[in-house]
Each structure stands twice: as C-alpha cells, then as structure tokens.
C-alpha cells in the first residue's frame, strides 16, 4: 500500500500553521464548498461536529489520501456565532461576549485511506474582560475579527482582551492539536 498523503479540507492559513506545529504539512489543500447554515434548533456541539464531518466528506479523496477538516464554533450559551461578516456584526459579537464566559467548540474530522471517518471535539472556555465601546471600536478597526468565528482572533490583538482560557488554545485558533495528532496517527499518518 502507498504511503498515505494528507489533504487539508480548508483554505485557512491558521490551520496550515497549526498543523506545522506538530510537524505536519498537507500534500494538498482543497476548499470544501458546503452550506454552513445551522439547522433549526441545532445545538452548538452538534453543529461543530456536523460541519467538520461534512467539510471532510465534501472534498475528493484519492486512494491513499487522508482528509482532515475542522470547524470552530463560538457559542455563548446555546447561540452559534458564525463568522463576522462586517464591522457592525463584529462589534455586535464583541458586545455579546463582553465580560462573559463562552465556549469555543473545535471539531476535527479525519477520513483515513480505508474510508473510515473519525471525529473529535474539543471544548474550551474563554472569557473576555468587560469591553468598553472604545475597546470594541479599536478592535473592530484592526479588521482581524472579520471572517472569524465569534468575531475575534485569539492569536491576535484580541488576546489582550481575554482574561482567561481553560482548555485548548490551539482549538480556539482553529484546530485542537492534541485531538488532531491522535486522529492523524489513527488514520496512518506518520508523525514524529
């Protein structure tokens, strides 16, 4: 059997950077094209897992290829905050997260060369300080929250606004590395 190669089902540069931290470089990048609209009444944990699994299945996999996909969902309570589309949405998300704890659910799904799909979910608690309007405006002006789940990037300027994190920092960035490494090894990828 051929040595397995890795397909990253994501165009996110953050996921490529995170994989590099564990010594993994995808052989191919494929952007999945799926509908990411939450189902009526869908719980955030279920949504994150479904998204990761659908993204992995949405890309074409060759005979000796392993596919990896991830989804990061920001959830204050039962609400799902998707990616901030513009500055107004970004500011609204930050107001909602201000001074309160929320969960970041980071699901990773891997399809091995034999077609078996395995998925793991990482749950991290994150708390923002109480944000004043000038802090919200300054963060939104950086533009880094646009296109990010929940409207912030913990690996950027938002880190200075977060009072604590309990769980997987890499999961909040976009791919929980502990779970990712275990799934890739189970799929047959050699990792040092």
TrEMBL record:
Its main location: cytoplasm. GO terms for biological process: nucleotide metabolic process. Its EC number is 3.6.1.9. Keywords: Cytoplasm, Hydrolase, Nucleotide metabolism. Its cofactor is a divalent metal cation. Coiled coil: none annotated. One of its GO terms (cellular component) is cytoplasm. It holds the Pfam family Maf. InterPro entries: ITPase-like_fam, Maf-like. GO terms for molecular function: nucleoside triphosphate diphosphatase activity. Signal peptide: none annotated. The active site is at 71 (proton acceptor). The record marks 14, 72, 155 as: Important for substrate specificity. It catalyses: UTP + H2O = UMP + diphosphate + H(+); dTTP + H2O = dTMP + diphosphate + H(+). The keyword Cytoplasm applies. It is found in: Cytoplasm. Nucleoside triphosphate pyrophosphatase that hydrolyzes dTTP and UTP. May have a dual role in cell division arrest and in preventing the incorporation of modified nucleotides into cellular nucleic acids. Belongs to the Maf family. YhdE subfamily. This is dTTP/UTP pyrophosphatase.
């Amino acid at each position: 059997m051929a040595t397995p190669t890795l397909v990253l089902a994501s165009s996110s540069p953050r996921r490529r950077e995170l994989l590099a931290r564990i010594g993994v470089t995808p052989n191919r990048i494929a952007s999945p094209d799926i509908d990411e609209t939450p189902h009526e009444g869908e719980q955030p944990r279920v949504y994150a897992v479904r998204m990761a699994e659908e993204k992995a299945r949405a890309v074409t996999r060759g005979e000796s290829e392993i596919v990896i996909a991830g989804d990061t969902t920001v959830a204050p309570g039962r609400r799902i905050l998707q990616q901030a589309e513009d500055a107004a949405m970004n500011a609204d998300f930050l107001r909602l997260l201000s001074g309160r704890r929320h969960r970041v659910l980071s699901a990773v799904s891997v399809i091995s060369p034999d077609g078996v799909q395995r998925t793991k979910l990482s749950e991290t608690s994150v708390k923002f300080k109480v944000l004043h309007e000038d802090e919200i405006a300054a963060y939104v002006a950086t533009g880094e929250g646009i296109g990010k789940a929940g409207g912030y990037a913990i690996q950027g300027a938002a880190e200075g606004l977060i009072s604590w994190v309990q769980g997987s920092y890499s999961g909040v960035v976009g791919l929980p590395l502990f779970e990712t490494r275990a799934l890739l090894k189970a799929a047959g990828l050699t990792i040092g």
